[in-house]
Amino acid sequence: MENKTVIGFIGAGNMAYALIKGLLNNGFDANQINISDPNEELLLNRESELKVTTYPDNTALLSNSDIIFFAVKPQVLSSVCLELKGVVKSKHLFVSIVAGIRSSDINRWLGGNFSLIRTMPNTPALFQSGVTGLFANEVVDNEQKSLVESILSSVGECFWVNEEKLIDAITAISGSGPAYFFLLMESMKQAGMALGLDEETANSLSIQTAYGASLMANKTGKDSRTLRTEVTSPNGTTQSAIESFQDQNFEGIVANATRAAYDRARELSNELGDAE
Ligand SMILES: NC(=O)c1ccc[n+]([C@@H]2O[C@H](COP(=O)([O-])OP(=O)(O)OC[C@H]3O[C@@H](n4cnc5c(N)ncnc54)[C@H](OP(=O)(O)O)[C@@H]3O)[C@@H](O)[C@H]2O)c1
Hints:
The chain is of the alpha/beta class.
């Protein structure tokens, strides 16, 4: 089954692109990837760049795919599912990457109790450096779990959770997380320029520092607090900066921001699905 499995992406936007690019870069066959989207120009671009098969119609994509990834904005997911209702077969396996929308609501819209894996990937999938949280509903069997994990692990690391609400926590940390690091890099670049560096140098320093710090955390296996302590000499320059961050409640700022993302995911669940 695995070698012939056809994956269909409903929604050909940023996240579908990142996942498909990651899959192709990792040797996945473009003939086994379908996409559908109402934007004809986008479909043409995707077809010419990625060599995948495109469908302007979601039901046609469904009929020609085994695993269906929902990669649309949360606000349009119910209409997409309602359109598929009646065409869906029990053999189909659904994977949602949509923030906030509960698996029970998706299944209600699809009109049955289908195998559904709710996931939260992130955009570094584009370079096989993503991280994805996954939650399987009770209908999903081990073979389906392995299949989806093998697809998503080709674009980064995978972590299963056994409580669906933890997907909202993963959304708040890694789903939205790349933007937090971009904000930090942007701020460091601006700060460097304020200290007299030219824009290009300040930009490269901030990017390379973020990359190097992440690599160190990854390769040494040390936790980030230990790494920070090791590079913070008493009374040195780093200590001055860290104390300034901490005086302004850096940890609290991060905790509040991630809580806001988590709350927004829960709000989306309640706004767009059945209230819990
Ligand atoms: N971007 C991220 O970092 C990230 C990370 C994790 C998860 N996600 C989740 O991934 C999902 C997609 O995000 P995205 O950033 O890829 O959004 P996006 O770039 O806006 O892509 C969504 C695509 O779906 C298309 N679409 C709209 N209605 C459709 C329909 N009825 N049938 C098929 N396609 C339709 C949109 O077309 P139009 O533009 O013409 O409407 C657009 O091309 C979201 O639910 C988000 O929560 C995103």
